[in-house]
Write a structure and sequence with these properties.
Elements (H helix, E strand, L loop, with lengths): L1 H17 L20 H7 L19 H21 L6 H17 L10 E5 L2 H6 L9 E3 H65 L2
Antiparallel strand pairs: 1-2
């Protein structure tokens, strides 16, 4: 799972370079501007209501959603590495990745600006949009990716807190049963060996008789 996290982190840097998966327009100073020919630029160019926003062959500032997710994946990479070194139950690493990635993906999706990814429901929460310096009309929830993220979070909670502990208890119980069976088998072998030794003893005594 750490390998998936670090790979995803670099993959999102590729998205930034290509100008895809871009963020919503923002007035924050740390936004990014995409040049002509990028996916973000072409999207604004083909949208009559936003084409006028293009200046000097560049888009206005947009949320660096790709960087947000990349940084989150790097943090998750470290978290998973640390967690693996600690005592944990089999399967909990997967559950932890599902929970953390799902939560971070849900949050970063709030700042996404490429509406082509689709929405399950269109909910506008103006206070949240203003907190992130985005247009009031920006659709805050619930994109297709956000709905998938909620599924991942649910799966992660189930695996981490229920499935992994249950499998751990089952394996421990199975191990105990196998140990008991092995001990019983060894005891039976010892009894059988002692029985053979007792049966052979009279025969040896008989051979020594004149």
């Amino acid at each position: 799972m750490p390998a998936i996290a670090i790979s995803h982190a670099f993959g999102r840097l590729g998205c930034l370079g290509a100008g895809c998966c871009w963020g919503e327009l923002t007035t924050l100073p740390f936004g990014v501007s995409y040049p002509a020919g990028s996916f973000a630029y072409n999207e604004l160019l083909e949208t009559p209501s936003q084409a006028s926003l293009l200046v000097d062959n560049h888009t206005p500032l947009m949320h660096a959603t790709q960087l947000y997710e990349s940084f989150g994946e790097l943090a998750l990479f470290v978290i998973l590495l640390v967690f693996i070194t600690r005592k944990h139950k089999h399967g909990q690493v997967v559950g932890l990745w599902f929970m953390c990635y799902g939560l971070w993906r849900f949050l970063t999706e709030i700042t996404r600006g490429d509406d082509a990814r689709g929405y399950l429901y269109e909910v506008v929460v103006t206070p949240i949009n203003r907190a992130f310096a985005m247009p009031d009309a920006h659709i805050t929830f619930l994109s297709t990716s956000q709905s998938i993220a909620l599924v991942l979070i649910t799966m992660g909670v189930f695996i981490f807190f229920f499935l992994a502990p249950w499998l751990d208890r089952r394996n421990a119980k199975q191990g105990t049963i196998e140990e008991v069976e092995a001990s019983a088998s060894l005891s039976a072998q010892n009894v059988a060996a002692q029985s053979v030794a007792v049966d052979d003893k009279p025969a040896k005594v008989a051979l020594k008789s004149p």
